[in-house]
Amino acid sequence: MELGVIGLGRMGGNIVRRLHRAGHHCVVYDANPKAVADLVAIGATPATSLADLAGKLKQSTRAAWVMLPAGKITEEAVAELGGYFGAGDILIDGGNSNFKDDVRRAAELGAKGVRYLDVGTSGGVWGLERGYCLMIGGDKAAFEYLDPIFAALAPGIGDIPRTEDRGAGHDPRAEQGYLHCGPSGAGHFVKMIHNGIEYGMMQAMAEGFDILQGRASAKLQADQRYDFNMADVAEVWRRGSVVVSWLLDLSAQALTRDGTLETFSGHVEDSGEGRWTIDTAIEQATPAEVLAASLFVRFRSRQDHTFAEKMLSAMRLGFGGHVEAPKKG
Which residues pair with 153 in a beta bridge? Predict the structure, then answer.
């Protein structure tokens, strides 16, 4: 199939590469000419503008994937591209937009017959090799039409054990790593909650390692002090323990490289979805104590840093390539 891709950063570029490997063709655009040139080198068609990209899509049903940071830049790209598309064409926002913006955009684009899909995309810098977990909302027929694209990007069943008793009432594509979650906004809503859970999981793991690290303190009773090799603790947990996870894998890698995490300051940013998750919990009157606390810890990390915050920074660098903000002063 053919797909336009706008935004060729860490994830957008690798989405194009993964689709190319699967035999699909992409028309690509980015404000950075080098990002475009790198993908032209593997067979992508370059575009010099959104209008040029729309004109170079040759399939009768045109489809384009916007992979830009949430906010004004995505809003403007969706609006402009929607102006070039016509009835039946499909526009995808694969970034981390707020689900309420998706509901509005779908209605605006739908007025002229353009179909809109919101795709929560998880996989970070590892997606090229591991595949992307895709949480999709919007027009069901558009989703079905683009199924070959989503199947190529998703990780597949892999070596993960299959869940027992999944029968006819469950979508088999969920096992492949992609799912139509519901109408417009549903995909980004599920991704928002996914990221909120991620905050809580990361915080729990970071605090645990902080307690381990602090057990060597001279303030403790001498015969109850323990000087743990943090990398070895992380490694043994990776082998059959209940807390096995990709976040633990990334923690083990970080601690093996630098057991004291001296290369990290502990300044931890938040990307927006954590805040939206808490806003949504408040709106629904749904208790979310752990998720709320994990968000507020990130706020505090910008004032005072602990080993736990350094662990958070290490995990964020590992899964998403997120680099700490420069130190002030």
Answer: none
In the chain, how long is the greatest CA-to-CA distance? 75
For the chain, what's the residue count? 329
The three-state secondary structure class of 122 is: strand
Residue 302 scores a pLDDT above 60: yes
Indicate which residues carry an active-site annotation: 191, 198
Q: CA-CA-CA-CA torsion for 147, 151, 157, 158, nearest 10 degrees?
A: 170
Contacts of 42 (CB under 8 A, 6+ apart): 17, 20
Query: CB–CB of 253/243 below 8 Å?
Result: no
Alpha carbon separation from 52 to 24, 28, 47, 69, 207 (Å, rounded): 20, 10, 6, 22, 50
Reported pTM: 0.89
Q: Which of 235, 242, 210, 138 is nearest to 180 (CA)?
A: 138
DSSP 71-104: THHHHHHHHHHHHH--TT-EEEE-S---HHHHHH
Report residue 290 as tokens.
């752990």
How far, in Å, CA of 51 to CA of 53, rounded? Answer: 5
Cβ-contact 245, 201 below 8 angstroms = yes
Q: Residues 117, 61: contact at Cβ < 8 Å?
A: no
In whole angstroms, what is the distance from residue 26 CA to residue 90 CA?
Answer: 15
Helix (H) or strand (E) holding 19: helix 10-21
Residues 6 or more apart in contact with residue 154 via CB below 8 angstroms: 131, 132, 133, 134, 173, 176, 177, 178
Condensed to tens digits (0 to 9), the pLDDT of residues 146-157 reads 999 999 999 999
Residue 17: which H helix or E strand, with range?
Answer: helix 10-21
Q: Assess whether pLDDT exceeds 70 at residue 92.
A: yes
Q: Report residue 96: phi and psi, to 5°.
A: -115, 55
